[in-house]
Amino acid sequence: MKKTQPKGLTRIINASKYSLKGLKAAWQNEAAFRQESVLLIIMSAVTFLLPVSHLEQLVMVASLFLVVIVELLNSAIEAVVDRIGPEHHVLSGRAKDIGSAAVFVALVLVVITWGSILLL
């Protein structure tokens, strides 16, 4: 017999609980996530002190959120790879390296975004 999945508001509530559980796990287990989250909070606050438009402020903060989002995905990839086994495998290493590269590209985007807005 097929298990019925929750629908409507119950599904949204359950999904929210899983999301909060994931954020808690990332905070507890991932130093990079903690560092980038603190960076997000501090640098978002800094945007209120800068002579930029609301749209520029939004773009600057959005670029910071993107780093945190990509870091969460990278951490998920690393967790899955580590779950498979501790032995080195070329594909496991590649997956982790590509996830790390995604975070790096997101950080470069922050530098380009902030630099373009503040220096031009």
Automatic annotation (TrEMBL):
Q: What class of enzyme is it?
A: transferase
Topological type in the membrane: Multi-pass membrane protein
Q: Which InterPro entries match?
A: DAGK, DAGK_prok, DAGK_sf
Keyword annotations of the record: ATP-binding, Cell inner membrane, Cell membrane, Kinase, Lipid biosynthesis, Lipid metabolism, Magnesium, Membrane, Metal-binding, Nucleotide-binding, Phospholipid biosynthesis, Phospholipid metabolism, Transferase, Transmembrane, Transmembrane helix
Q: In the UniProt record, does the keyword Cell membrane occur?
A: yes
Q: Name one GO molecular function term.
A: kinase activity
Q: Which reaction does it catalyse?
A: a 1,2-diacyl-sn-glycerol + ATP = a 1,2-diacyl-sn-glycero-3-phosphate + ADP + H(+)
Question: Which residue ranges traverse the bilayer?
Answer: 31-52, 58-77, 98-119
- Names of required cofactors: Mg(2+)
Q: Where is this chain's protein located in or outside the cell?
A: Cell inner membrane
Chief place where the protein resides: membrane
Keyword Heme listed? The answer is no
Taken from the record, one Pfam family name reads: DAGK_prokar
EC number of this enzyme: 2.7.1.107
**Family from the record:** Belongs to the bacterial diacylglycerol kinase family.
Q: What does this protein do?
A: Catalyzes the ATP-dependent phosphorylation of sn-l,2-diacylglycerol (DAG) to phosphatidic acid. Involved in the recycling of diacylglycerol produced as a by-product during membrane-derived oligosaccharide (MDO) biosynthesis.
Q: What is the official name of this protein in its record?
A: Diacylglycerol kinase
* Species whose genome carries this gene: Enterovibrio qingdaonensis
